[in-house]
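cache lookup: miss for this entity combination. No prior model stored, computing from scratch. Input as submitted by user K.M.:
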Amino acid sequence: MKLDATEEQQMIQAMAREFAETAIRPVAAEIDREGRFPHETVKRMGELGLMGVAIPEPWGGSGADTVAYVLALEEIAKACGSHAAIMSVNNSLYCDPVYKFGTDAQRERFLRPAAAGHALGGFALSEPQAGSDARNQQTLAVRDGGHYVLNGRKQFVTNGREAAFVLVFCATDRAKAHRGITALVVEKGTTGFLVPKTEDKLGIRASDTAELVFEDCRVPTANRLGEEGMGFKIALATLDGGRVGIAAQAVGLAAGAFERSVAYARERKSFGVAIGQHQMVQWMLADMATAIDGARLLTLRAAGLKDKGRPYTTAAAMAKLFAAETAMKVTTDAVQVHGGYGFIKDYEVERYFRDAKITQIYEGTSQIQKLVIARAVLGGTE
Amino acid sequence: MKILVAVKQVPDTATQVKISADPRAIDTTGITWIVSPYDEFAVEEALRIKEKRGQGEVVAVSLGPERVKEALRSCLAMGCDRAIHLNDPAWNDADTLVTSKALAAVVKQEAPQLLLCGRQAIDDDMGAVAAQLAELLGWPCASWIMEEAIDGDGKTVRTARQVEGGLEVFDLPLPAVLTAQKGLNEPRYPTLRGIMGAKKKEIRDVKAADLGWAPEPPQLSVVTLEALPPRPPGRILQGDVPTAVKELVRSLREEAKAI
């Protein structure tokens, strides 16, 4: 068993850490407060190659791997959960499936700009009545010559307003249930593609979570990813990768809150000593450090399996479950270590605490991860 | 235009320096090594000159043990075209003059039109190598530069160097040695592509014998290192204002001897 990162992976991590610390962290509180999409820093992340980390260079990506991706993503999340969400969705939920399932012509048009960071991608699976129950797709695409006519409503789409391309899942044959679901790349500006609403959220407030509406939206059949009816398979395969990304985001949020807590425990005094001298605080910090390391190792294992082309569905579910639960627990305790100061916005841990909650919900709730893990334990899905 | 950039690998600025069992050296356990920040300004400026002129070659060069390859790879990731590593145990105890002589031999081999360095390395702060190099090469040298502009023909460089209260402007014929001061530029982050491509670029190992030069003993040697004494804790003067002020003046005069 080898746990050392390669020299390239370490350099990517170091670059991401320095960029996050000097360019992202200083704006994180402000964009959170204003709920403002961070165009400037996201553009720079694209220039640095962080928006298509594991996509091969010929398609606009950086030609690194999933391990490098999660190491970099953790560093970004350590500074700001919103930036991590934007990066994670573009890499894992958009670029990854378009690379994996797209034709060369589709990669040229839909992947290259997103992997190079010139345009953003989104992933539209959830609907008002289809969250965890993703098979229940009500959005309908009806074939009309060389086009699909798309009608329906998508909910909670990260990058939904800013994305130039959205991977939309829809029913093309209701009779076939989930085998009748198809994936289409819909371009921003297509007539009948509307973004009526951006959500006002508890956390990751600077990422744009939007509702998308399709009204007789005509999408060329050339925009279909894979065959008709392959959509659900594409969605599940994509979410496995996405979960590794969210696990990394959760590890980063936990690690960020932990670093602030250690610094605070060293400087804040009570009863005449630094609070880090009190055993109650030491226990919290020790538990935090241990859980974060566990979550990080699970995440790196899942990423390593993906890079080796080995089955990683269960490993990804375990990493996502444990990292998300760790992020929630660690950020809660980080607020506790800060006491009253943790409850106000002057200290960053309040934001980490709010940002952490979504990691237990999106790209499969913690409950869904347990379902995936239990199936593997009881029946073997891999 | 060919540009050589001499860089030094140094402990990260956040390092808590500890003296090792051998009192002439620091304890290197657990140290993160980086390219000295002033040298990064030099690398950045070299890359900008190349980009501005639309052609050229930027070569990073460093002297030191095997770990120095990491620093050179960082330079390659930023965009340097290739690197030269003066890597020989014969240079283990090199002082600034020995370092300069070895580097000068490489500079003569490479024959660049410009040699860029940081104004000093942030570890021992000697700031000697660049000036010694210029002397050994017989090239003009401008230190602590804040601006530079090379003429279209690549024959001269106009530099502005930092002096008290302003800038001092010089025209130097090329080849020349320039040393970078903070403010010259903002070094770029290496891109992921740059990092992934760094391994494909050449790092040439150079031994002392390759330079046809017998290493000479250093004229400067470290006798011992001493840690700074711990800073005494601050003191808050008690009592009402007239009493406290009286005590303050007394302490400043008699203890601190500041007034």
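stored under new cache key. The two ends of chain A are 22 Å apart (CA to CA).
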